[in-house]
């Protein structure tokens, strides 16, 4: 995939590994696409802790539950064959996005546009699925007695208050090109990578 159409993942991973070697606490929470790593939960690999879940206390004292979120997805949990079909369809759309990106550049169109993301936004049932997923994650977070929850899984970046719990979804590095960052005062923000721009990413405030 062209280097100007996605978050530079290799550079990010190299930076995290270097920070871990220097003593920064780095926790890896595997998702359903790297479920094999879950057998390492509770161990440390290359200075990185592997956990199924992790509670992070932000600088402002708020406690956030970090988890991937697939355990709150009934399709992934109970209908594995649908999850596999969805994964393969999503992968095909991501691969198809490469020639689409080339055509856009040839036409002089700027910015990053995701075919997979567009397809998901057009499916009405996806809206109901996202709402159900968010509600399930928030219920689980409330049962853990935390102030908020940070997850991923559904590739829908967001920061919002739901039933008294702060819900944060980091999105992903391919479609939305987003991440959640914490500032020194504990403030959480959703950042969006600007394609082809090496400066500070665009920031969306909740």
Describe the model.
- It is a single chain.
- By secondary structure, the chain is an alpha/beta fold.
- The chain has one domain (9-204): Purple Acid Phosphatase, chain A, domain 2 (4-Layer Sandwich), CATH 3.60.21.
- Helix content is 35%, strand content 21%.
- The strands form three sheets. The protein has a five-stranded mixed beta sheet, with helices on one face. Strands 1-3-2 form a three-stranded mixed beta sheet, with no helix packed on it.
- A hairpin with a 5-residue loop joins strand 4 (54-57) and strand 5.
- The protein is globular.
What's the topology here?
Elements: H1 9-21, E1 27-28, E2 43-45, E3 48-50, E4 54-57, E5 63-66, H2 74-78, H3 80-106, H4 115-122, H5 124-143, E6 148-151, E7 158-162, E8 165-169, E9 178-182, E10 188-192, E11 202-204
Index terms:
206 residues; alpha/beta; Purple Acid Phosphatase, chain A, domain 2; 5-stranded mixed sheet; 3-stranded mixed sheet; 5 helices; 21% strand; globular; disordered N terminus; disordered C terminus
């Amino acid at each position: 995939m062209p280097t100007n159409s996605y978050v530079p993942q290799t550079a990010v991973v190299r930076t995290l590994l270097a920070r871990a070697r220097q003593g920064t606490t780095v926790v890896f929470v595997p998702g359903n696409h790297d479920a094999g790593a879950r057998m390492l939960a509770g161990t440390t690999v290359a200075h990185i802790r592997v956990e199924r879940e992790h509670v992070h206390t932000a600088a402002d004292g708020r406690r956030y539950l970090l988890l991937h979120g697939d355990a709150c997805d009934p399709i992934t949990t109970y209908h594995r064959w649908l999850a596999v079909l969805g994964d393969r369809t999503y992968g095909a759309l991501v691969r198809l996005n490469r020639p689409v990106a080339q055509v856009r550049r040839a036409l002089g169109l700027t910015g990053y546009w995701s075919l997979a993301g567009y397809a998901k936004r057009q499916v009405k049932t996806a809206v109901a699925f996202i709402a159900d997923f968010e509600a399930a994650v928030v219920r689980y977070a409330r049962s853990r007695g935390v102030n908020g929850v940070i997850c991923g899984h559904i590739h829908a970046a967001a920061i919002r208050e739901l039933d008294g719990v702060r819900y944060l979804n980091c999105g992903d590095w391919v479609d939305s090109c987003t991440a959640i960052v914490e500032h020194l005062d504990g403030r959480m923000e959703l950042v969006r990578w600007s394609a082809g721009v090496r400066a500070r990413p665009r920031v969306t405030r909740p």
